[in-house]
Amino acid sequence: MKNKRGKTPSLITASSGRPEKSQAKKLRNCTRCKEAIVKGTDCFLIPKKSGGFTSKKSFCNECFREILEQSKKDLGLFEELLLETEGS
Ligand SMILES: [Zn+2]
C-alpha cells in the first residue's frame, strides 16, 4: 500500500505562490513590457521570492497570457519526459 502523500503540490504554486487576478489600485507598470496598467483595470500578480521575502509582480493581461503559454510549453516538456520514463 502506498503511503499517504497528502496534498499534491503544483509546479505553479509550490515555489513562490499562486498567481492571482487583481485590479490595479493605482497606476502600475507591467513588470515585463513596462506598459501602464491604469488604475481599476485587471492585471495579474505573480509572487516572486527574492531575498527573504515575497514581492508580487504585476503583469498586464497580454504578458500574463504569454507567461501562461510558456508555462504550458514547459509543462508539455515535462509531460513528454514522464511519458518517456513510463514507456521504457
Ligand atoms: Zn505587459
Short overview:
The protein is α+β, with helices and mostly antiparallel strands and 88 residues long. 35% of the residues lie in helices and 27% in strands.
One letter per element, helices H and strands E, the order comes to HEEEEEH
CATH superfamily: Zinc finger, PARP-type
Biggest β-sheet, characterized?
3 strands, antiparallel
Predict the CATH topology: first zn-finger domain of poly(adp-ribose) polymerase-1
Shape: elongated
The level-1 CATH class? Alpha Beta
Describe this structure in words.
The chain is α+β, with helices and mostly antiparallel strands and 88 residues long. It has a single domain (17-87), classed as Zinc finger, PARP-type (first zn-finger domain of poly(adp-ribose) polymerase-1). Helices cover 35% and strands 27% of the residues. The chain has helices at residues 11-14, 61-87, and strands at residues 20-23, 28-29, 36-37, 42-50, 53-59. The strands form two sheets. The chain has a three-stranded antiparallel sheet. It has a two-stranded antiparallel ribbon with strand order 2-3. The two termini are 24 Å apart. The mean pLDDT is 90. Bound molecules: zinc ion (ZN). Zinc ion binds next to helix 2.
